[in-house]
Amino acid sequence: MAVARVFKLVKRFEGFPKEDDLKLVEEKLASPKEGEILCNTLYLSVDPYMRVFVDDLPLGSTMIGEVIARVAESKSPDFKKGDLVASFQGWTSAFLTTADKAAKITHLPEGVPESVALGTLGMTGRTAYFGLLDVAGPVKSGETVLVSGAAGAVGTVVGQIAKIKGCRVIGYAGSDQKVEMLKALGYDEAFNYKKVDLSETLGKAAPNGVNIYFDNVGGNFSDVVLMKHMSMFGRVAICGFISQYNNKSDDTSKGEILYGSILAKELRVRGFHEATYAANAEKKKEANEQLAEWVKQGKLKYKETVTEGFENAAKAFVGLFTGVHHGKAVVKV
Amino acid sequence: MAVARVFKLVKRFEGFPKEDDLKLVEEKLASPKEGEILCNTLYLSVDPYMRVFVDDLPLGSTMIGEVIARVAESKSPDFKKGDLVASFQGWTSAFLTTADKAAKITHLPEGVPESVALGTLGMTGRTAYFGLLDVAGPVKSGETVLVSGAAGAVGTVVGQIAKIKGCRVIGYAGSDQKVEMLKALGYDEAFNYKKVDLSETLGKAAPNGVNIYFDNVGGNFSDVVLMKHMSMFGRVAICGFISQYNNKSDDTSKGEILYGSILAKELRVRGFHEATYAANAEKKKEANEQLAEWVKQGKLKYKETVTEGFENAAKAFVGLFTGVHHGKAVVKV
Predict the structure, then answer these.
(1) pTM for this structure?
(2) CATH 3.90.180.10 applies to domain B2-119+303-332
(3) CA–CA separation, A86 and A108 (whole Å)
(4) What is the pLDDT of residue A255?
(5) How do residues B255-287 score in pLDDT, each as one tens digit?
(6) From the list A247, A254, A272, which residue is nearest B255 (CB)?
(7) Which CATH architecture does the domain made up of A2-118+303-332 adopt?
(8) Within a 10 A sphere around the Cβ of A221, how many other Cβ atoms?
């Protein structure tokens, strides 16, 4: 009988999540019945969105998230032992599931580690793809694209796709090291927002305004961008607002001028979730294949921070909000 | 030689505009040269947008706006004496202009007063048409549409078009009399926002959330709607934010939660100007003809408040912000 190590939510997050809000336990797994598969997790994903979703999760639940796993035993005609799968199983080192809850991963190019199916060639890559090309699209060559949280899992991909599409790309991140990484990835301009004046640097980097703002941070950063730096008919894709996830205060911003700015510049502001687009199997396949093709061609580089050891998952999660990771954060089981 | 009475901007508006910020003067007009037309104004339009645009107007300028006029003398092959035209001439009782700056009005149904070409069958009608059907569209039968500033020039038209399209329509306005007017126009639910709790009434009127929010007011009203009452994939057309036009304070709202709400519900928020759509002659014609057809069929009623006397234009303008008008506010010269 297989045993899974599992992280359970045992305390509500108050402000920043803490490692002891989560607890590691062991659970026994039954043998697969007809239609089921038993899988061993290779990598699990830690993502900022979890901070928000967990507020609605009952205490005692398994911590949520996607994993990449290998099928260890299959009683399903759709899978065989050794198949690589992605599944929303939460933070568990092994799991028993039905075939419909796992997606076979077949699009990873030769030599690309399995973990990348959680990042650039997985949900975060598709988030960048759909967010830039559909939500903020159509993207025209020569347009100016601004990415906040640019060194994160999604931001690193957005900037590179925008470059592939012939755009001028500007990114902001939270350390000099991240800024260097962005420049190496092809960002035309990159700034450490902790060290520069946003409005001054952005005004110089985008003198004619920003055509597309891909927003991962929200808050005052986005207020400044929307109120002062968008071009006429600019498009804003709201992907996240990490600056506020741990913030319990409600009233530090300037909504009214925001309405005025959206009107004056005739902006199009849209929030989106990857899942809405990926629910369309055709669109999901298209994104996976195009992203993999760009990786094969060397046009799209994947960046990840791998934390070793399942037991360190909580620490890796907390690190999302203190800015220690570059690119996609994953945990190797 | 013709003489025009003209309102000039002589003082900057501070907060609410005051009548003596504008001054009535007389100006002589030359006779038309080749390609020019001389026109007598029948009606001039007073609109909230002027409050915002005037901030950039040099002192001494003629107050801006659209007028409906009759050609008194024509030296253009495109116009003859007696033609009805719309033109952005500002507040003037007569004017000399070139043929390219006037649009012939030919779509008014029999018996409809010329003033309606400034309202329901003019710019404000097209604002409702484009804003609802293009910006927030496509509109599906059975959707719930919310209109703020519903008793205004644009709002009265939006609600009626939404009803024509088979929607459930909810409106908020600032007096009991306006609420009665909205109900008479076919609004399914209408409330006096000064007397009710917005969130409580809207929660009951739209228990499954608002699919389309047509926003004329902005400010705290819109904060509540966007943060609590939109349905998944809701669309917001930002047409105006009159609650803030006379407000010099910047910081009374809650932008961050707004970003979160736009993301969580995957909202699409767009600002728009009628002029952007009407610049396409085909689209403008389509809107004019469809609106006129609905008026002829009795499906679309025009509501207007006519102030008599050119000399009372400043008073009519001030009234926009004190809520005295119903429907479109025009001044009869």
Answers:
(1) 0.89
(2) yes
(3) 12
(4) 44
(5) 445 788 888 889 999 999 999 999 999 999 999
(6) A254
(7) Alpha-Beta Complex (3.90)
(8) 18
| E-only strand ranges, chain B | 2-9, 22-29, 36-45, 67-74, 84-87, 94-98, 103-104, 144-147, 168-173, 189-192, 210-215, 230-238, 268-271, 304-308, 328-332
Query: Using one digit for the tens of pLDDT, what is the confidence trace for A300-315?
Result: 999 999 999 999 999 9
Q: Could you tell me where in chain B the CATH 3.90.180.10 domains are found?
A: 2-119+303-332
Do the chains contact at B244 and A263, CB–CB below 8 Å? no
Single out the residue of A153, A90, A95, A81 nearest to residue A121, CA to CA.
Answer: A153
| Cα–Cα–Cα angle for A167, A330, A139, rounded to 5 degrees | 15
Q: Chain A contacts of B272, Cβ < 8 Å?
A: 263, 266
Which of B243, B252, B263 lies nearest to residue A240, judging by beta carbons? B263
**Cβ burial, residue B8 (10 Å; 0-12/13-18/19+):** middle
Å between B263 CA and nearest CA of chain A: 4
pLDDT at B257: 58
Q: How far is B218 from chain A (nearest CA, A)?
A: 6
In which band, very low, low, confident or very high, does the pLDDT at A251 lie, cut at 50, 70 and 90? very low
Cβ neighbours of B52 in A, within 8 Å: 260
A262 to B222: CB separation less than 8 angstroms, yes or no: no
Amino acid identity for residue A66 in this structure: E
pLDDT digits (tens, 9 = 90+) for B8-34: 999 999 888 999 999 999 999 999 999
Rounded Cα gap, residues B262 and A270, in angstroms: 7
Residue intervals of chain A classified under CATH 3.90.180.10 are: 2-118+303-332
Confidence of residue A249 (pLDDT cuts 50, 70, 90): low
Q: Does the pLDDT of residue A286 top 90, yes or no? A: yes
For chain B, what's the residue count?
Answer: 333
- Both tokens of B3, joined, read 């003489």
CATH number of B123-274: 3.40.50.720
What Å distances lie between residue A290 and A132, A161, A304, CA to CA?
14, 10, 20
| Positions of CATH 3.40.50.720 in chain A | 123-274
Q: Could you give the CA distance from residue A17 to residue B65 in angstroms, rounded to a whole number?
A: 56
Are B262 and A238 a contacting pair at CB < 8 A?
Answer: yes
Residue B262, SS3?
A: helix
Measured CA to CA, the distance from residue A193 to residue B126 in angstroms comes to 43
For residue range B40-91, what is the model confidence (pLDDT) as tens digits?
Answer: 999 999 999 899 888 889 999 999 999 999 999 999 999 999 999 999 999 9
Phi, psi dihedrals of residue B303, rounded to the nearest 5°: -120, 130
Mind telling me how many Å the CA of B266 is from chain A's nearest CA?
Answer: 4
